[in-house]
Amino acid sequence: MKILLSLLAACVIAIPSGAFATAGSAVEVGIVTDGGRTLPLYPHTSSRAVKKVYAEAVKGDHYRIVVRNNLNRRIGVVVAVDGRNIISGQKSWLGNGERMYVLDPHAVNEYSGWRTGRDRVNRFFFTDAPASYAAAFGDQSAMGVIAVAVYPEVHRVERPPDLSTTAPGPRPQADAEAKASARGEASQSAGTGYGREEYSPSRQVSFEPERRAVETVLIKYEWRETLCRMNVISCSRPYGQPPNRLWDHYGYAPPPPVRP
After folding, report:
1. For the range 136-139, what are the long-range contacts, defined as Cβ-Cβ under 8 Å and sequence gap of 24 or more?
2. Is residue 191 within 8 Å of 122, Cβ to Cβ?
3. Cα four-point dihedral sign 23, 46, 79, 197
4. How far is it, in rounded angstroms, from Cα 81 to Cα 93?
5. In sequence order, what are the residues at sequence separation of 6 or more whose Cβ sits closer than 8 angstroms to the Cβ of residue 194?
6. Among 29, 21, 26, which residue's Cα sits nearest to residue 212?
7. First vs last Cα of the chain: how many Å apart?
């Protein structure tokens, strides 16, 4: 049996359902800035186990990751930003052996920064990829991705002895190749910085996660210009506004229609 000492944030928030754009089923994940703006989310792909969406980020905005537990049991959430676990700061593979936050059934919580101590975090804010926290470690292999992997708590039932006590190790990856391929677009990509320090109390709890995540939510955030180039959003006019037949016509007088 594996018992993890996980973190339970002391400040649980209450946000009414539907108050912000979210992704996920077992959990709902949304991104809210300090100014109260909810990041627009644009669907990419979705399966039973993995939900992928795009999000529009604004440079300089401080933000919070809001997670609602829709299950009637405790869950542990491994949260990674730009590929780094937000509690340990280590490179994350979203495995069940990593540091995680614990949410009670149907609870809502927010995660606003890199945890630097039991009562402290340094805030998340959107910045250019080269100035990000991950880039400071030479790691751009998962730049611009907010990931939440959801592990329900193991039911307390009798189990046979000698169960494996180790999580599957990370798959080997050619980090050098990943870094090289990412350098070309790094200056134009979005990343998350290591911002100001804030008070954020938490406490350790015992938690035994299931071996597999019941759901993983991946939010790929980018600047608006990048989302335009990728055709994720329509930028020919603001928010896809239909053309104005008087304002938007810039042509010349065409020849008259050919009469039969």
Report:
1. 136/194, 137/84, 137/91, 138/179, 139/82, 139/83, 139/84, 139/91, 139/175, 139/179
2. no
3. negative
4. 11
5. 114, 122, 133, 136
6. 26
7. 85
pLDDT grade, residue 167 (50/70/90)?
very low
Q: Which residues, 6 or more positions from 124, have their beta carbon under 8 angstroms from its beta carbon?
A: 62, 63, 64, 65, 81, 112, 113, 114, 192, 193, 195
Strand partners, 65: 31, 111
The answer to whether the beta carbons of residues 189 and 129 sit under 8 Å apart is yes
- pLDDT for 36-94, tens place per residue? 899 999 988 888 889 999 999 999 999 999 999 999 999 999 999 999 999 999 999 99
Beta strands in 82-210 (DSSP E): 84-85, 101-103, 108-111, 113-117, 120-128, 145-152, 190-199, 202-207
Question: Among positive and negative, which fits the CA dihedral 171, 8, 112, 218?
Answer: positive
Q: For the CA atoms of the chain, what is the radius of gyration?
A: 22
Q: Is 191 helix (H, G, I), strand (E, B) or coil?
A: strand
Residue 208 has pLDDT above 60, yes or no: yes
The SS3 of residue 52 is strand
